Amino acid sequence: MAQLFDFRHPPFDSLSDVDHRRVESAADLAYFPAGSTVMAAGSPVDSLFVIAKGQMAEFEGSECRTVYGAQDSVDPRALISGSTGLDYRALDDTLAWQIPRSLLLELTQRNVQFAAYFYQSVAQKLAALADRPMQRELRPALVAKVQQTYITPPIWLTDDDTVLIAAEQMRARHCSTVLVRGPLGPGVFTLSDLRNVVIDGRNPAETPLGDYAQRTLHTVDEDAHVFEAMLTMARHTVQRVLVTRAGAIVGVLEQVNLLSYLSNNSQIVATQIERAGSVAELKSAADSMTRLVELLHGSGVKVTLIAGLVSELHRKMLARLFALLAPADMLDHVCLLMLGSEGRGEQILPTDQDNALIIADGYDHPQLAEVCEQFNAALITLGYPPCPGDIMARNPFWRRSVHGFRHALDEWVDSASGENVMHLAIWSDAVAVAGQVQLLTTLQQHLGRRVQGNDAYLGRFAFVIEQFDQQPGLLSQWLGHHDTDIDLKKAGIFPIVHGVRTLALAHGVPASNSYQRLDQLASQGHLSTTLAQDLAESLALLQGLYLKTGLQRRQRGEAVSYRISPAQLGTLERDLLKDALKVVRQFRALLRQRYHLQAL
C-alpha cells in the first residue's frame, strides 16, 4: 500500500506520517469495469474514492458534468454530506482506493488544513488544483471571524407554537431555520423537520413545535475562526451551527451561507458594485468577478449559469460606472448599450468591450463626448481592453441620435456589404444597460420592420457563416487524428450564434441571448425542439471549453485564445467536441437550404 498510494496530492499531502499509516491500513483497492456505476444518486456514502488508474465521470441524468482521473478524489462534498445526489460511473476499467468516511471525518477534527480542503472542494474541483491557486484565495477567509460571515438573525418561537406558524415565519423571513424555547431548553426546527411532519401525516396547524424540535445544539462563538465552524459542521455532519455571544444565541450560520462566504459569491460582488463610489472601488469588484468565475467553474457550475451571472454583474457594473461619470440629468436623454457577446450575455472572460450610446433626438450636452471617452477609458482600467474595431461609445459612429441610428440601420440593410452585415449583427445583440430603454426599443422595432420577410437580405446576412468557415475539412480530420488545432469560434461558436441570430431576426424573436433565442424559436415552431436542444448543448460545450482553456492561459500569464489543441483534451471531451461539430454541420446544412446560400 505504501508504495502505491500517493500522499503527495491534496488533501493527503497535509497529513502526518502517523496519519499516512492509518490511511494505508484502512484503504482498500477497488476495481470498477468500464460502464459500471460507482455511486448512484441518493445512495449513502461511506467511503471516499481516490482514483489510482482509469477515469470516472459525474452524471446528472444523461449529462456528464465532471471527469475524474488519476489521483483525483471523487466528489468530496458527498463525504461531508453522507450522500450523493448524482451518478458516478467508470468511463473505462478503473482502480480506485476506497477510504472509510469515518476515518476521514476523524482526521478533519484534528487537522484544520485537511478539513478545510474538503469544504473548499465544494467551491472547486480537486482536479483543477495542480497549482492550488484557490487555496491562496481562501486562506484569508478561513482565518476570518464567524461574525464576518452571513449570520441569519434568530427567529424565536415556543414549544407550544404550531408547525404552521413556523412555516409561515420561514416563508416570510426567507429562512430555513427557527429556534424554539421550551421547558427542555432551546431547540431548532428546520425544513427537514417540517418535511417529517408532513410525512408523518400530522396537521401542521395543530402540531406543536415541541414535538419535533431538535434539542441537540451545535454552537460556535462569533469570535471563533471560520474554520472552527467548518470543523463543527464536518464533525457532526450538520448543515448549520448556532452562533453565540457570551454564551447567548445571536444567530444561525447555515452551511450554504458559509460556503457562499468562502466562494466570494455573487451577492458580495453585486454589493461592491452598488456601493462603489469611484472607479478604483469598481476595479475591486471587477477583480472579484474574475475570482468568482474561477471558483464557479472549478465547482462544476454550468457555463450557461456562469455566463448569466457574470452578464448580470457586468450590466450592473457598466450602469454604475456610467452613473459615476455622467451628469445626473444625462441618463434621462440617452441609452447605454452593450453589444455583441456582451449584449448576448455570453462573454464570461473580459476579452474586449463592445458598447454604444443612443441619444434622444434634439438632445445635446457639452460633456457628452468627454463622458463617453472617460467611460471607455475606465473600462480599460477595469480590465476590459478596447475593441479592435473601435465599437465603443467614444466613437461617434457608435454614438448617435435615434435618427442617426435609424439612418445607419437602413444603410446596413440596403447595402449588405460584409462590413455592414457585421455592423447589423453586432447591433442585433444590443441590450440596454442604463438610461431610457425606449430609445433602443424604437430602433429595434424599426429594424424588425425592415428585415422580417426580407428573405433576400436575410440570405446575405446568413451568408457570413460560409465566409467564416476557414476549416472546411476539420471534422473529417478530427475523425482520423487529433494533431490539428481547432479554433472554437470559427468552427462552432460563430456558426451557431450567427445562425440563431439570423433566425431570430427573421421571425421577430426579441431575445438577445442565444439560448433564449433557441428556446423561443423552438416554442414558435421555427426550429425543431431536438435541433434547438442539440445546438444549445453544443454551444455550451464549446463555450465551456473556451472558458476552461482561457482560465488556464490566464493562470500562465498568456493571452486568452479560441484556439485549442485537441490532443490536450480528455477522451470524453474530444468525443463530445466531435458530436458538437456534427451538430454545427447539420445546422449549416439547414441554413444553406433555407436561405439558398450556395446560390449566393
TrEMBL record:
The protein's matches in InterPro entries, at most eight in alphabetical order, are given as: CBS_dom (IPR000644), CBS_dom_sf (IPR046342), cNMP-bd_dom (IPR000595), cNMP-bd_dom_sf (IPR018490), Diverse_CBS-Domain (IPR051257), DUF294_put_nucleoTrafse_sb-bd (IPR018821), GlnD_Uridyltrans_N (IPR005105), RmlC-like_jellyroll (IPR014710)
One Gene Ontology term of the molecular function aspect: [protein-PII] uridylyltransferase activity
Report any Pfam family annotated for this entry: DUF294_C
Tell me where in this chain the Cyclic nucleotide-binding domain is found. 11-56
Task: Name all CBS domain ranges.
Answer: 213-268
What are the UniProt keywords, alphabetically?
CBS domain
Q: Which PANTHER family match?
A: CBS DOMAIN-CONTAINING PROTEIN (PTHR43080:SF2), CBS DOMAIN-CONTAINING PROTEIN CBSX3, MITOCHONDRIAL (PTHR43080)
Q: What protein name applies here? A: CBS domain-containing protein
